[in-house]
Amino acid sequence: MDMNLLHGSKKSWDEWAGIDRLMKHTEENVQKQQELKKKQDTDKNEKAARGSQTKTKGSTGRRGRKRKSDIPKDKDGPPPEKLVNIQIPPQLKKQLIDDCEFVNHLGKLVRLPRSPNVDEILQKYHDYRLKKDGLISESVGEILNGLQCYFNKALPAMLLYKNEREQFEESIKEDVSPSSVYGAEHLLRLFVKLPEILFYASIEDETLTELKQKLQDFLRFLQKNQSAFFLSTYHSADDSGVAVMTEEN
């Protein structure tokens, strides 16, 4: 697959990828969701006030709520049947669940900077394919450049949980790319969003099929190196979001 043939002329990944359109779409949805949440909170408070007046001593409330294993998807996004199906291996799905648990429910954060970072992981995959195939095809090089571009653009727009924002602001200064600071934990979140991102890209079906195969191979590489690439524990959000690397990294 020659990624430069997508539009009949040479174009870098981020020129044809459509990520800017997705980001605009996401921003609009975020505003809608905030307005909806504000209305729901108002309705909920009114309902709770009414319920407190009629609640009996013997009544019991439901505890807990269903947890999602990945980055929340926009309700107004494209229909599932229109999305490319990127299969995340079960072990990495469990990694996403643990990631969500650490950040959203235990209030912990990934200690930054990560080692290996996203740039280093992409380079390791490059070296792996070079050793396996004896050469690096142009398409693999384009895909690795594309993943790096996607990650750097998508991280602040759609890959962070709310309580990771402050850490991001502290960690990413001018001329510092997220891919040089963040690691496998946040890179894996990108694959949750990739089907939606690719929906907004003008990619022919044949090219998309081959792209999917190569992305699946990259996910298998992440799975194979899971213990080396991913953290098993996160640090307390009360600590500094940017820290010197410790033994847990």
From TrEMBL:
Its main location: nucleus. GO terms for cellular component: nucleus. One of its GO terms (molecular function) is promoter-specific chromatin binding. Keywords: Chromatin regulator, Nucleus, Transcription, Transcription regulation. The keyword Flavoprotein does not apply. Residues 67-235 form the MRG domain. GO terms for biological process: chromatin organization; regulation of long-day photoperiodism, flowering. Residues 27-86 are annotated as: Disordered. Residues 27-49, 69-79 have a biased composition (Basic and acidic residues). It is found in: Nucleus. The keyword Metal-binding does not apply. It holds the Pfam family MRG. PANTHER family: MORTALITY FACTOR 4-LIKE PROTEIN, PROTEIN MRG2. This is MRG domain-containing protein. It comes from Solanum stoloniferum.
